[in-house]
Amino acid sequence: MASTASAEHVAATPALRRLYVIRFAFAAAWAVLLMVSGSGLTLGAQLLLVLYPAFDVAAAVVDARSARTAGPVRGLYANIAVSSLAAVGIAVAGTSGVADVLRVWGAWAVLSGLVQLLVGVARRPMGGQWAMIASGGISVLAGAAFFQSASQDDPSLTALAGYATLGGIFFLVSAFRLSRSTSMPSR
Question: What are phi and psi for residue 67, nearest 5 degrees?
Fold first, then answer.
């Protein structure tokens, strides 16, 4: 039975590796665009803020489809629900101000970070998941910091760019680690 699970993990690894690289590229581009848009809630910034959790939903759907036989699909479904609610919540909060956006983003970062951590732990047999586990834990801490920063006199969205960049880097590290952990000698 263990060899069957290993074969399923190896089969799912290329799709997961590609998804992780795409998530890195998206996060990096998103962070740059958010920094360019400034720290205010312009229409462009609001669209970017909603786009990030919406992209997370799409990525989780792709991940769940490729992981049906080799992974923790329930956790991915939980992430789809949490990120969908976050996209709607951020859209609504964007009409109220930066502080409300940071509160919703913070709550989302905590919940999605917990899910990411649990999915990473469940995927440990695949290899390359320590970065996902660390990223999930850091997301929980960052979410709490975003929530707290919402109560400052002049809250800013710029820290979200750093959050996205760091998350993207963790996805890239995991992609490379997956490559190394599934390298098999040629026959």
Answer: -105, 10
How confident is the model over 18-43, as pLDDT tens digits?
999 999 999 999 999 999 987 789 99
The pairs formed by 117-121 with CB atoms below 8 angstroms and a separation of 24 or more are 118/72, 118/75, 119/71, 119/72, 119/75, 119/76, 119/79
Which tokens in the block code for residue 150?
Answer: 């919402």
Q: Write down the residue that tokens 């999605």 correspond to.
A: 112
Structure tokens at 77: 């479904």
Contact indicator for 49, 68 with CB cutoff of 8 Å:
no
What distance in Å separates the CA atoms of residue 8 and residue 25, rounded to the nearest whole number?
27
Q: Are 66 and 75 in contact (CB under 8 A)?
A: no
Enter the tokens of residue 79: 């992430």
Per-residue DSSP letters for 83-140? HHHHHHHHHHHTTT-HHHHHHHHHHHHHHHHHHHHHHHHHTGGGS--HHHHHHHHHHH
Q: To which H or E segment does residue 181 belong?
A: helix 158-181
Give the list of residues 6+ apart from residue 6 with CB closer than 8 angstroms, or none: 125
| 16, 66 contact by CB (below 8 A) | yes
pLDDT digit string, tens, across residues 137-157: 999 999 999 999 999 998 999
